[in-house]
Amino acid sequence: MLSKIAIVASLAGLAASATTNTNLQTTFPKPSSTTNLAAVKTIAAGQSFDGEMKQWDRNPSTCNDQAEGGDADAVFLLEEGATLSNAVIGPNNGEGVHCLGTCTLNNIWWTDVCEDAATFKQKSGTSYVNGGGARKADDKVLQHNGAGTVAVKNFYAEDIGKLYRSCGNCGTQYARKSTFDNVRIKGASVLAGVNGNLGDTTSIKNSCLLDSKICWLYKGVTSGEPSKTASAPDGKACATSAVQTSGC
């Protein structure tokens, strides 16, 4: 028979999980409190972590403007199959969230993106971004360095550079896939940047883009800088359906 303490703890856990809102939200949440980490927090393979809508950040700060950082500069490091839910990522970190394998991000909010908000490094499979949002990103929000698919649904972003970028000059390149469903963006340079020459594909549907471009195509490389080859959907590397750019 469960003790009263065990029952209360179980009910509290169920209540916390029930509050995960992965619907499209366009108002940034107010954190319940702030937790500053001296080092990156690792979520083990297959495990889940509920951030309880606290703001999670680094102290001292690991943000160095647009200088490329590594795993040690992130707030959360997710191993294969890990899930992170209900967290606000603060401004004093360089890399936000790093996924070493496939991961799931539920209701995660980035208040002021430094270098990248989240980086995906999986070798195969699909990572999911469900709900949440990001703002104030000079460059990229979601950086896809590994292989496989990044699937984004019900995400909100404002005042950003690129919502998503398939790595343009990684030493090992892949044909990457990305999908966007019910995404709303205000004031972005572009939603997605993909490498058409490497077999990337992205699909964008049921979304609203205000003062933002839909997609840019690049010639991806393994060294040096990629070059832009197109500034609009081509129906192949970048396909769209029911995307509005005004009146939404």
TrEMBL record:
Pectinolytic enzyme consist of four classes of enzymes: pectin lyase, polygalacturonase, pectin methylesterase and rhamnogalacturonase. Among pectinolytic enzymes, pectin lyase is the most important in depolymerization of pectin, since it cleaves internal glycosidic bonds of highly methylated pectins. Favors pectate, the anion, over pectin, the methyl ester. Residues 1-17 form the signal peptide. SUPFAM superfamilies: Pectin lyase-like. This is Pectate lyase. One of its GO terms (biological process) is pectin catabolic process. Its main location: secreted. It is an enzyme of class 4 (lyase). InterPro entries: Pectate_lyase_PlyH/PlyE-like, Pectin_lyas_fold, Pectin_lyase_fold/virulence. Keywords: Calcium, Lyase, Secreted, Signal. PANTHER family: PECTATE LYASE F-RELATED. One of its GO terms (molecular function) is pectate lyase activity. The keyword S-adenosyl-L-methionine does not apply. It catalyses: Eliminative cleavage of (1->4)-alpha-D-galacturonan to give oligosaccharides with 4-deoxy-alpha-D-galact-4-enuronosyl groups at their non-reducing ends. It is found in: Secreted. It comes from Aaosphaeria arxii CBS 175.79. Its cofactor is Ca(2+). Its EC number is 4.2.2.2.
